[in-house]
Design goal:
By secondary structure, the chain is an alpha/beta fold. It has helices at about 75-95, 110-115, 120, 130-140, 170-175, 195-200, 235-250, 265-270, 285, 295-300, 305-315, 330-340, 355-360, 375-385; strands at about 45-50, 55-60, 65-70, 95-100, 105, 110, 125-130, 145-150, 180-185, 210, 255-260, 320-325, 345, 365-370, 390.
């Protein structure tokens, strides 16, 4: 029995409007490639003689192992990150080069605007989508020979993919100047037991580029793929801005980072959480606790729970600051009053780019997050990679 890898439990929220980029990402509403590969078949690069803004342009050669690209089009940043890690695992498993697609907000955001490319290259061969389209696609994946890939049930009889129907799909591919001339409809999943079928049914000499409508991955992220987050490292630009704020606001002092989800849509989502075995990103808490179920307290903690756990962590860490990331109410007055005897200052930046919230939370001496939130899950994975402690509302 095949499981539809494109069926999700929750309906993605609309993409953010221009202005502040929305990253609250909880949407409701193999072997290494052989080092003995012939030179012509390696994914190699070399600096060119020309330069722009003192930076050398990287030249890429075609790799006959084939390529994978996808639209990270399920919801906002937290969900996209889950899918990104699953797609990394998939490309690695089938032995192809991963074309790093841009992140999707109200526009395409190049992968390297927010993250470094080099750490990922330690795990698998990659190339930025912009470089792929400029240097390799014109010759090896030209207009007229571009197939879009999508899953359909065998019973549906469908032979086409709506690759560009609606937002964000259409704007995403338009941003890369891609139109599709044909389609590959597949019926197999991305699970380990079917990886060999991907290799045998779709050899790279016949299918050089797999361009997926959505990420070839499960949501939420599988437990075995969480460790891949160590290869997802913030760009220097993001970290410079995060450290500037940290050093200015918490100069040499400890701080606790907390994530609060309390806007109206989230309240409505949490009405359906009680008793569920899995709900959005809840597996981040339940992986080591078989038999546990979601509670509303975990999804939408009361004011008392937020104050209780924050104070406990502040006392145990001897922190002098609390940093709040939230989609609505940072509870600054309530927290400062409750922590008056600890002489703690409470801060809320509300940055123009929520990725800065994530970077700042990742550096905290202790983080308190929401079990259900993929925004919190991103922070938790980053902190796990660095052996930093994390607690959760209604759970810790």
């Amino acid at each position: 029995m095949y499981i539809n890898p494109y069926v999700y439990l929750f309906i993605p929220l609309a993409c953010a409007l221009p202005g502040k980029i929305d990253a609250e990402g909880d949407d409701l509403v193999s072997e290494e490639l052989s080092t003995s590969t012939p030179a012509a078949d390696r994914h190699t690069s070399e600096p060119s003689s020309s330069s722009s803004n003192l930076a050398t342009e990287t030249k890429y050669e075609w790799n006959s192992n084939g390529y994978v690209i996808f639209c990270p089009c399920m919801g906002r940043f937290g969900n996209q990150a889950d899918h990104y890690l699953g797609a990394i695992a998939f490309a690695k498993a089938i032995g192809r080069i991963l074309v790093l697609p841009p992140w999707r907000t109200y526009r395409n955001v190049g992968f390297n605007e927010w993250f470094k490319v080099e750490p990922l290259q330690e795990y698998l061969p990659v190339i930025l989508a912009e470089d792929f389209m400029k240097q390799l696609a014109p010759k090896y994946w030209p207009p007229g020979k571009r197939s879009g890939w999508c899953w359909q049930s065998q019973q549906s009889g469908t032979t086409t993919c709506d690759m560009k129907e609606g937002n964000p799909f259409g704007p995403f591919w338009d941003g890369l100047d891609v139109d599709f001339d044909d389609y590959v409809v597949y019926h197999i999943s991305y699970d380990d037991y079917e990886i060999d079928q991907w290799k045998t049914r779709y050899p790279p000499d016949k299918y050089p580029v797999m361009a997926f409508k959505g990420a070839p991955a499960r949501f939420p992220i599988l437990e075995k793929h969480r460790h891949l987050h160590k290869y997802l490292q913030w760009s220097d630009t993001i970290m410079e801005e995060a450290y500037e704020y940290i050093n200015r606001t918490f100069p040499g002092q400890k701080y606790v980072g907390i994530h609060l989800r309390n806007e109206v849509d989230w309240e409505r989502a949490c009405e359906h959480a009680e008793g569920e075995k899995t709900y959005m990103a809840s597996t981040q808490c339940f992986a080591a606790h078989a038999g546990k179920t979601v509670t509303k307290k975990m999804c939408l903690p009361s004011k008392e729970e937020v104050l209780r756990l924050t104070k406990n962590v502040v006392i145990s860490t001897r922190a002098k600051h609390v940093y709040v990331a939230t989609d609505k109410n940072p509870m600054i007055a309530e927290l400062e009053e409750h922590l008056k005897s600890q002489k703690v200052k409470v801060h809320h930046l509300d940055p123009w780019l929520p990725q800065l919230d994530l970077a700042i939370l990742g550096q905290a001496d202790h983080f308190i997050g929401n079990c259900i939130s993929s925004f919190s899950a991103f922070v938790k994975r980053e902190r796990d990679a660095k052996n930093k402690p994390t607690s959760f509302w209604g759970f810790s």
